[in-house]
Design goal:
mainly alpha, 2 domains, 3-stranded antiparallel sheet, two-stranded antiparallel ribbon, 6 helices, 5 strands
């Protein structure tokens, strides 16, 4: 019995020290190398403070729409819907989003709608949309705001984030930053 208990106690103490001390300090140190020291980046707009790295809900016609959220953009309860692509309720949700988008964006066909405008992300808090998702909304925003489409296209280009090291991921646009820039475009 002693031959099993003492090694188990030693292993427990080593794990306790490692995971509550050494590992925690390693993760904290890595976060210090990240932008804003691993803290969320705050943006101020319209007398509101928002996190730039958490998706915000935009559904008005004069703004770029965000990616849908399965948790209604609630950062306290991040998560996906866990419904598969063959689930009838999920398909109904996606179809309703497609129908809504088509009503607000006349002249756009169903096949042209990027998937990130009608499907929620795994976390439900994705703050980005694809460049294609932004471009397809230009006509609606230009019409509603009375701004030339070229000006909005330029705004999209200036807010496009390139893939990490030019290799990993795709071009993406932070919707909150883009909408703040759109408000500042006069």
């Amino acid at each position: 019995m002693k031959t099993n208990i003492f090694p188990a106690i030693r292993l427990t103490l080593v794990c306790l020290v490692f995971f509550s001390g050494v590992y925690t300090l390693m993760i904290w140190g890595a976060a210090q190398l990240a932008p804003n020291n691993g803290e969320g980046e705050l943006l101020n707009a319209n007398e509101k403070t928002c996190y730039a790295n958490v998706g915000q809900k935009f559904t008005q016609d004069n703004y770029f729409w965000s990616r849908p959220s399965a948790v209604d953009y609630n950062a306290a309860g991040a998560g996906g819907s866990n419904k598969g692509p063959s689930n009838p309720a999920y398909l109904n949700d996606v179809q309703a989003r497609i129908d809504t988008f088509l009503v607000h964006n006349p002249g756009v066909s169903r096949a042209e709608i990027p998937s990130d405008l009608v499907t929620a992300s795994g976390s439900g808090l994705d703050p980005h949309i694809s460049r294609q998702a932004a471009v397809i909304q230009v006509k609606r925003i230009a019409r509603v705001r009375g701004i030339a489409e070229g000006n909005i296209q330029q705004l999209i280009l200036s807010n496009t984030e390139k893939p990490l090291l030019g290799l990993f991921g795709t071009e993406r646009i932070n919707v909150l930053r883009l909408n703040i820039a759109l408000d500042n475009l006069k």
